[in-house]
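To whoever is on call:

I kicked off a structure prediction for a single chain this morning and the downstream step that reads the tokens threw a length-mismatch warning. I double-checked the sequence; it's 421 residues and nothing unusual in it as far as I can see. Pasting both halves so you can look.
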Amino acid sequence: MHDLRALRADPAGFDAALKRRGAPAVADGVLLLDTERRAAETELQELQASRKKISKEIGGLRKSGADTAALEERVAHGKARMEALQTRVAELDGQIRGTLERLPNQLDASVPDGADESANVEVHRNGVVREFSFTPREHFELGEALGLMDFETASRLSGARFVVLRGALARMERALGQFMLDLHTTDNGYEETAVPVLVNNEAMYGTDKLPKFADQSFRTEDGRWLIPTAEVPLTASVSGQILPANVLPRRLVALSSCFRSEAGAAGRDTRGMLRQHQFQKVEMVSITTPEESDAEHERMTRCAEMVLEKLGIPYRRLLLCAGDTGFGAAKTFDLEAWLPGQKAWREISSCSTTRDFQARRMNARYRAADGKPAFVHTLNGSGLAVGRTLIAVMENYQNEDGSITVPEVLRPYMGGTDIIR
């Protein structure tokens, strides 16, 4: 997850990168463990070589009938020491790994400093914010008045932060997912992929969701995890592989159910569909080379923006600051849609490059031009969060009588329906 050689070469720089994240310095402690481990490994190798040499001597002496007791005692003593060294090396490896796996990715130089979302930088805006001749309502007010959004039944079935959609709103949610998939596969060159929603520890760990975010995910009794995003199975699909360079970039897209415990979200967005335990999302993932990853990040973000542009939803792009950038990301662009009912910009997509952070965790590589294996770069982005897009459509296309106009691009997916009453 972090290059130990780079840490050895520039410990001060490594700690400085952590400081931008508000994380404490760790380089000195890691290097102490690393120095002890390397010394133990060196001694172990020397003992192994010595044991091999002595074993040859013992064989020769036995043929001549000479006494080998003293040499055999040295071998036995060396074996005990080797076992102790092997145990210690494993312990030190575990301590180093335990420290490094909890450290966030190093940030790109272009990421602005800042402690929280107030320091995020707006890159650009698109679309015209509609002026209403009436007071616009929030999505849950519209949905409940139409009788098509039912939180009460969902609560009886599953508890808080669930919803039952009915009729035309259920169809619109399905339409949005299909529209996004068609756009990303037909126009944007992504390969549609159907993925499991249950994954193992290795898939979660490789995509930096464990151990950091264990409390934010749901785990089954048999030890598997409900995916928090299709990023997990899509990215982990190349785990342990060495890919030919000519298959890169590999661009994958999936529409899946996602599950999050929303730990720490008590009191936030308790009404409506903004923050749910279960939701639909179209996820884009790219596997590429280090040389192409920055361009791929921009391309992916533009693919997400195209969805909003075709739907006619006003949005803005933000470059997240150091304190708001996610654990595994080196750089993140968030897209925020305008919600007239809330009179606020709300996140609808997050597109991140993790560089080789995830690739190191899952040992995903490609065959570089020099013929040697090198770590791939991985990127992920929402294209888009379907439930939040439904909210944005409902609030931006609402009418004074409580009806909702269907955006033109969705009408073919809605059987020609142009308005929901």
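Update from on-call: the warning came from a stale cache, not from the record. Cleared it. Sanity check on the structure: The mean pLDDT is 95.
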